[in-house]
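Tokens in:
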């Protein structure tokens, strides 16, 4: 599933092609995504100028004059800017047709993506209870202390809770915990102030480096420019079960936490 760095990489890839253009049409070829696409969304978007492309958590927000198109890539979704004559592929479900003839094309084989309309001055329910952005000032060790106080859940699961902090998915949670030296099963509410400071810093550094590298290509993700992400080459523990830890040489272990595969070093993380 595309995580925050992949979504941010996509945002940066498509925004220069969208900002300032007008929407000639929104062609919904198949509305059967995770939630059915509203039948009036094309009428709402047509003729409007795109003012910006933002991101909140893993949602892309295409800002228009009277509202926003809110797009989620789901598990396998991707966006491309393509010329009008580009042949359609199976699972090309949506085209945002621009006034210069190019299309922003949404491809989603598994149909877990979604498209919603958000009117100006309103907040979509899917965004209402989200925690802070991990790369903004509101997220730090002090925030983690407040958000995790009293929690009995494993810190790995808590870090992936979007009410604690948005966008820290499975890959980057494993990598951040490794950098911070914290075992993924440690009870979230029993971690010291100093270690939570390190964890917040590790989350920021891992995500920043992943964005700079264009994300992490696993199966389906490609950035908005069609190029793969390269952060996978820098992963320390994720997907490396049985391989030597880059810090101490101990074999990396794998276990399931919160129904997700987690990777850690039993010697460096405690």
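Residues out:
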């Amino acid at each position: 599933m595309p995580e925050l760095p992949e979504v941010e990489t996509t945002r940066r890839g498509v925004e220069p092609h969208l900002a300032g253009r007008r929407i000639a049409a929104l062609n919904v070829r198949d509305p059967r995504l995770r939630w059915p696409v509203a039948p009036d969304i094309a009428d709402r978007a047509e003729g409007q100028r795109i003012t910006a492309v933002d991101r909140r958590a893993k949602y892309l927000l295409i800002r228009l004059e009277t509202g926003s198109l809110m797009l989620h890539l789901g598990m396998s979704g991707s966006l491309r800017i393509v010329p009008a004559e580009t042949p359609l592929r199976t699972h090309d479900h949506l085209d945002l047709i621009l006034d210069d003839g190019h299309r922003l094309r949404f491809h989603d084989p598994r149909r877990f993506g979604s498209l919603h309309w958000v009117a100006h001055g309103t907040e979509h329910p899917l965004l209402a209870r989200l925690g802070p952005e991990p790369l903004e000032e509101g997220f730090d060790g002090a925030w983690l202390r407040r958000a995790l106080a009293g929690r009995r859940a494993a810190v790995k699961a808590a870090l992936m809770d979007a009410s604690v902090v948005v966008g820290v998915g499975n890959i980057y949670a494993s990598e951040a915990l490794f950098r911070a030296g914290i075992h993924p099963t440690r009870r979230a509410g029993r971690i010291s102030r100093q270690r939570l400071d390190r964890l917040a810093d590790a989350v920021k550094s891992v995500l920043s480096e992943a964005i700079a590298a264009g994300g992490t290509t696993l199966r389906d993700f490609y950035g908005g420019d069609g190029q793969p992400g390269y952060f996978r080459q820098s992963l320390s523990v994720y997907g490396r079960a049985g391989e030597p830890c880059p810090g101490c040489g101990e074999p990396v272990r794998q276990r399931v936490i919160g129904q997700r595969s987690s990777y850690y070093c039993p010697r460096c993380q405690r």
